Amino acid sequence: MKTLGIDVGSSSIKISVMDVASGQCAGSVTLPDKELSIDAVQPGWAEQSPRMWWEYVCAGIKQLGATLSMGDIAAIGITYQMHGLVCLDKRGEPLRKSIIWCDSRAVEIGAEALEKIGRESCLQRTLNSPGNFTASKLAWVKRCEPELFQKIDKFMLPGDYIAYMLSGDISTTTSGLSEQILWNFKEEKRADFVADYYGIPLQMIPPDRPSIGVQAYTSAAIERELGIRQGTPIAYRAGDQPNNAFSLNVLDSGEIAATGGTSGVVYGVTDQPKADPLSRVNTFLHVNHSAEKPRYGVLLCINGTGILNAWIRRQVAPEMGYDEINRLCETVGPGSDGLVMLPFGNGAERMLENRYTGASVLGIDLNRHGKAHILRAAQEGIAYSFRYGVDIMREVGLEPKVIRAGNANLFLSPLFRRTLATLCDARIELYNTDGALGAARGAALGAGLYKDRDEAFRSLTKLETVLPDPHSKEALESGYVNWKAELSVRMSRL
């Protein structure tokens, strides 16, 4: 018996098949060969075609189907880039490209909504500013594309669109409503007052279902096209960061997960709903939340992390693989000999109060600094940004002492792992999982193929534990002080 996990990212689409009995990956494919294209027709904008996502999902399933029987799939799980906006007409066709997570065009609309709804009232009920989240993106469409807005029948998140294409059923999840800033935490119900303020008809909002549990069933058309039997349950759906936490068995209060893909994220679980007055970190319903046993995910997101690492590689060392780059970085000492890099070049940063400072390279000495310094400074600059965010999380009551991560993306770098552990004074634990495999595991749990959490995660294996390095502590702390000073200068100019 097998389950299928679909991970719809902004950089790639990954499809994994999990063997339920062993909990191990039976097959996986990532598409395309290069990163997915992001359309940025204006500064701060970022859009992708929902049809492009679906085409790669189908291509990935067909590729796996060449060696694995899709007729053996017993349940499907979906994870996706959070906060994106997909608008469908009455025929179920996308009306425009999706405005994705890192698009910052709605920042001012969200800030205006916070003040007009009432800052205290809004934060008490939604725990977040409407900010640059999905509801605010839709408000931008209403304001700037009114003719298109009138044609919208339903709006949804990227993962909701994939579930719809698999089943023909339009729905979202309660966790998904919270990431759209359409959940009232105080009253444990949908936040219709946000939609009413924005002038969003309530009938545009899909019905919501639990993240873990049967949500819909695949259609006959999917059986004909992809070989997955009609009636296969879609039994799990979650945004990429709640799903990353789920993948790492981070489900209880006090547990912390991290990831370092295009963006960098630290995600902590708590049982106390608490807002950051400055909305630098955001609180959403976690995948296992219930009114009886509340679980909230506190999310710190840094847009410009992994994307900086990839950009620097393309510009400075296109001929080198990441393993070779990491070896070269080790030839330079902690602190990169005074070279400082700010990684914030991928849109407005929530932890910087929605400011866009841009990326910067500072302190270059043309007589001393070379390729190795630039490459190391990029990784350290990313780690410094994580430390900056972790300090914010400490302000709202979370204390990361153990951080769990999948053995993927930035966490494949021994240097980055060691630097982050040292800066945050936390133990980092690496596990044999990723987003697509986590979604497949969630599908098995949601469909009842696993009887409980313990059975679902018994195959999760810790690969490595990374401890803070006392020998580099002083140099990294000094580097962080310099980095933070440079960031303060940049922010003061905005």
From TrEMBL:
One of its GO terms (biological process) is carbohydrate metabolic process. Keywords: Kinase, Transferase. The keyword Kinase applies. One of its GO terms (molecular function) is kinase activity. It comes from the Bacteria. InterPro entries: ATPase_NBD, Carb_kinase_FGGY, FGGY_C, FGGY_Carb_Kinase, FGGY_N. Pfam families: FGGY_C, FGGY_N. The keyword Nucleus does not apply. Residues 4-245 form the Carbohydrate kinase FGGY N-terminal domain. SUPFAM superfamilies: Actin-like ATPase domain. Residues 257-444 form the Carbohydrate kinase FGGY C-terminal domain. Belongs to the FGGY kinase family. This is Carbohydrate kinase. It comes from Candidatus Gallibacteroides avistercoris. The lineage of its organism: Bacteria, Pseudomonadati, Bacteroidota, Bacteroidia, Bacteroidales.
